[in-house]
Design goal:
196 residues; 3-stranded antiparallel sheet; mainly alpha; 7 helices
C-alpha cells in the first residue's frame, strides 16, 4: 500500500477524514436519489428496504441489524427515521419488547428504482476501489477487526497518562457501522443502545 503524500494529514486526523470521505460518498448517492425523484431518501435506508423486501414477512430490529451488518442501535435509528418518512410500519411482536418492521406500500413502489440504483452503485463502488492501491472495503473490514481485538479507548489509554477506564478491555468503545453489501449507499449512523 502506498504511503500518504508528503504534507497530507496523518493518523491524528483519521476520524475527521473518514467522516469527510463518508460524507462525500453519501452525498453522491443522495444526489442520485434526488435525480430519481426521491428527495430526502437516505443511503442508509436502502439496505433495510432490500432486507425487508427479501424477507418472508416482517422483521425485528435485531434481524435487520444482522441482515445489514450494523449495530442494533444503528438499525433502530434507521428504522425510526424510515417510519417517520412513511417508508416502514412498526407493530408489536410476540414479545412486548420486540418491534416488527414491514415496508409500507409506498416503499414497495420504490423497490425497482432502489434495486437499479443498488446495482449501479455497486458497480461504481467496484470501479472506485479499482483506482485505489488497496480495496477500501477490505481495509474497513480489517480496521474493524483490529478494533475488536483492541478498542481505540484501550489504545489511547496505553499511550497516555490518562489511565484506562472501567470497561477499557471490553471492546465497548464507540463504533461506526459501515453497513453491508458493496453499495456505497449502505452507510449507517453511529451510536449505542439496547432493546429491540
Amino acid at each position: 500500500m502506498t504511503s500518504a503524500s508528503p504534507g497530507s494529514p496523518g493518523p491524528e486526523l483519521l476520524g475527521t477524514r473518514l467522516r469527510h470521505l463518508l460524507d462525500r460518498l453519501e452525498t453522491g448517492v443522495e444526489a442520485v436519489y434526488a435525480d430519481l425523484g426521491m428527495d430526502g431518501f437516505r443511503p442508509r435506508y436502502t439496505p433495510v428496504a432490500r432486507a425487508l423486501a427479501a424477507a418472508p414477512g416482517p422483521c425485528s430490529i435485531r434481524e435487520l441489524a444482522e441482515a445489514t451488518g450494523v449495530t442494533h442501535s444503528a438499525a433502530s435509528q434507521t428504522v425510526a427515521q424510515m417510519a417517520k418518512n412513511g417508508l416502514v410500519a412498526l407493530a408489536p411482536g410476540d414479545d412486548a419488547r420486540r418491534r416488527m418492521v414491514r415496508l409500507t406500500p409506498g416503499a414497495e413502489e420504490l423497490l425497482p428504482a432502489l434495486n437499479a440504483e443498488w446495482e449501479a452503485t455497486s458497480a461504481a463502488a467496484a470501479e472506485f476501489e479499482a483506482e485505489l492501491p488497496y480495496p477500501l472495503s477490505r481495509l474497513i473490514g480489517e480496521a474493524l477487526e483490529a478494533l475488536d481485538r483492541r478498542p481505540m479507548r484501550r489504545r489511547i489509554a496505553d499511550r497516555s497518562a490518562l489511565g484506562p477506564g472501567p470497561d477499557s478491555d471490553t471492546g465497548t468503545g464507540s463504533g461506526t457501522g459501515t453497513g453491508s453489501g458493496t453499495g456505497i449507499g449502505s452507510g449507517t449512523g453511529i451510536g449505542t443502545g439496547t432493546g429491540d
